Amino acid sequence: MARIRSGSVTSPERRRDARARSTQQTRSAQSGEFVVDDSPVYDRRSPLRWFASHARRLGWAPPAFFLSAIGTNVLNSAVPTYTGSAFDEILGGGPGRVGALTHIALILLVIVLARGVVDGAARFLIEVCANRLVRDCRLELFTSLLGKSQTFHNRQRVGDLMARATNDIRQIGQMVSPGIDLITDSMTALIVPLVFIAFLDWRLLAAPLCFTVAFYFALRHYMHRLSPVSAAMRSEFGTLNAGLNEAVRGIEVIKATGQEASERFRFNRRARAYRDQFVRQGLVQAWYLPTLILALATAGALLHAVLLVRAGQLSIGGLVTYLGLVAQLGFPTFISTFSFSLVQLGVAGARRVLDLMADESEVALARRGVTRRIEGALEFDHVQFGYGGTPVLQDVTFRVRPGQTVALVGETGSGKSTLTKLVNRTYDVDGGAVRIDGVDVRDYDLDSLRSQISTIEQDITLFSRTIAENIAFGRGGDATRDEIVEAAKGAAADGFINELHDGYDTVIGERGVTLSGGQRQRLAIARALLTSPAILVLDDSTSAVDSATEDEISRAIRRLLHNRTTLLITHRLSQIRTADLVLVIRRGRLVDHGTHEQLLARSALYQRIFAPYDSIAEPGPTRSIDAGTAAGEARA
C-alpha cells in the first residue's frame, strides 16, 4: 500500500510518475500514421540521450567491453613494469638472476597472451554493439518514415532522405567502432599508466598530471572547433546526394534538353562544397596541440626521472618502467584526432536523423479507432483545406450514397485530386469534416480505413518485384495465385503478362520503367480489384490505355465493383455520362453538382466545357475531352 505523507507522494512514487510522464511524452513524440505498439521507446531529446537509450537495450555487451578495455590496458602497463624489473635483475648481477629473468620472461609471455585474448574480446564486443546500434537506428528511422504523413514526404528531398538513412546512420556505427572503441582505449590508456606510476613513485606523477590537464583543455578546444565543421560536412553530403538523386531520376529530361554540361557544373559545385568541408576539417586537425604538449611532457618526465636516479631515489629499472608508462600516453594523444573526429561526425549524423524523426506528422493516429466494414456512404461537410496556408478547397459540401459513382470535373489545379486524398486521410482537413458511414474519418483506425479504400492515380508506383507480388501488394502478400490471375484478367492485364518471359514471375524494373504506361496502369487496377475496396478512387486511371483496352477495363470495373462507391476524376465524356453524380469544382469550390444532363441544362460553366462536344460525341467509350482545355477553347 502506498504511503502518504502530508498529502504528498513519496519520493519513489514521484520518480515513477516522472519516468511515466517522460515515457508518455517520448511515446507521443514517436507517434505517427504507423506505430508499432510494442516497439522500444527511445529518448530523442538529444543525441547523447538517444545513444544512452539504445545502449541500455544492448544488455551486457557495453559493460563487458568496458571491462575488457580496462583489462587490456592494465596488462599493457604491466609489461613495462616487469621489463624494468628485468633491468634491475641484470644490473644487480645476483647469483639467481637467470632464474629470476626466466620467471619474468614467463610472466611477460602470459601477459602478452592474455592481453591478446582480452583485446580480441573487446574488439568483438564493440563490433556487436556498433552493428546492433546501426540496425536498431535504421529500423527506428524507417518505422518513423512509414508513420510520416504525405505532406511531410512531399517536402523532403529523396536524396537527402537516403543520405540520412544510409550514410548518417553508418557514421553512427563508425562513431561506436572504431570511434568510441578507440576513445575508451585511449582514456584507459591515459588513466591506468598514471595509477602504475603512482605505485612506482608518486613524485613521478608531476609531468604526466600536467600533461593530462593540458591535454583535457586542448582536446576540449579541438572538439569545440570541430563540431560545426562535422555538422556542415553531413549537411553538404545530404545536398550532394539529393542533387545526384534528382539528376539520375531526371536523366531522360536532361538528355532530351541537352543540359548535361549544366548539370555537370551544378554537381561539380556541390562536390567542391563537400570537399571544402574536408579541407576545413584538415585545418582544424593541423592545429592539434596535444602532440606538442606530449613532447614537452615527455622531456620533462625524462629530466625529472634522471634527477631522481642521480639522487639515488630511483633505480635504472624504475627509470625504464617510468619511461615505458609515459610512452603509453602517446596512444591517446595521437589517436584522439581520428577517434574524436568520428565521434563528432556520428553526433552530427545523429542530429540529422533525430531532426527527421522529430518532424511531426500532420495526420494524427486515432488510438483504438473505429474498425468496421465500410458501406461507402461519403459526406463532405463544409471542408476547408490548404497547403502551407494557401487555400486549395473552400467550403466543400456534398453527400454520396453507398455504391454511387461520382465524377469530379474541373480545370487543372482546381483541387480534384486533393479532394480525393482527404477521404483516406492522405491529408487531414483544416476545417469541417469528411465522414464515411456517418463517422469522421479521423475517428477510424487508420489501417482499417485505408485497407478499404483503393486509389489508382496517374503516376503509378510499382516495385522492383515480380508482377504477382506487385498485384498482391495491397493484400500483404496473402493472395493466392488464382486470385491474382483473376484480378489481372479483370483489369485486362492477363494477356500482356502471359506474353512476358516469366509471366507472373517476371521481375519488373524499379517504378515499373520496363513496362509501358498502359501496362503499369492495368497492373495498378488489378491491384485495386484484388483488395475489393468499399471505396475506389480513379484519378484519370485510363489516360494511358488505348480505346479497346479502356472499354475492357471500364466493363470490368462496372462488373467487379458493383455497389461500391467510386470517385472518378476523368476528362472522358463517356465516363462522365454514366456517373450517378457529377461534381463541378472551380478554384477549390464546389460550384454545382448533379447528373450530366442536369448540369448541361442549368450550369453555364458546365455548358461551356461540354456542350460544344456533347452534341457531336459518339456514344462509344473512346471520346476524350480535357475539361481544362475545353473550357479554354469555349472561352476563346
When the domains are counted, the total is 2
Helical proportion, percent range: 55-70%
Give a short account of the largest sheet: 6 strands, mixed
Radius of gyration: 36 Å
**Number of DSSP helical runs:** 23
Distance between the termini: 84 Å
- By CATH, the superfamily of the largest domain comes out as ABC transporter type 1, transmembrane domain
CATH structural class of the largest domain:
Mainly Alpha
Uncertain stretches of 5 or more adjacent residues: 1-30, 615-636
Number of strands: 12
Q: What percentage of amino acids are in beta strands?
A: 5-15%
**Coarse shape:** elongated
Structural descriptors:
ABC transporter transmembrane region fold, about 10% strand, four-stranded antiparallel sheet, about 625 residues, disordered N terminus, 2 domains, six-stranded mixed sheet, Rossmann fold, 23 helices, alpha/beta, disordered C terminus
List the helices and strands and how they pair.
Layout: E1 4-5, E2 8-9, H1 11-29, H2 47-56, H3 61-92, H4 97-147, H5 150-154, H6 158-200, H7 206-249, H8 251-257, H9 260-286, H10 290-310, H11 316-327, H12 330-358, E3 378-387, E4 390-400, E5 405-410, H13 416-421, E6 431-436, E7 439-440, H14 446-451, E8 453-456, H15 467-471, H16 481-490, H17 494-499, H18 517-531, E9 535-539, H19 547-560, E10 565-569, H20 573-578, E11 581-586, E12 589-594, H21 596-602, H22 604-614, H23 627-635
Parallel strand pairs: 5-10, 5-11, 8-9, 9-10
Antiparallel strand pairs: 1-2, 3-4, 3-6, 6-7, 11-12
Helix pairs in contact: 3-4, 3-6, 3-11, 4-6, 6-7, 6-11, 6-12, 7-9, 7-10, 7-12, 10-11, 16-18, 21-22, 22-23
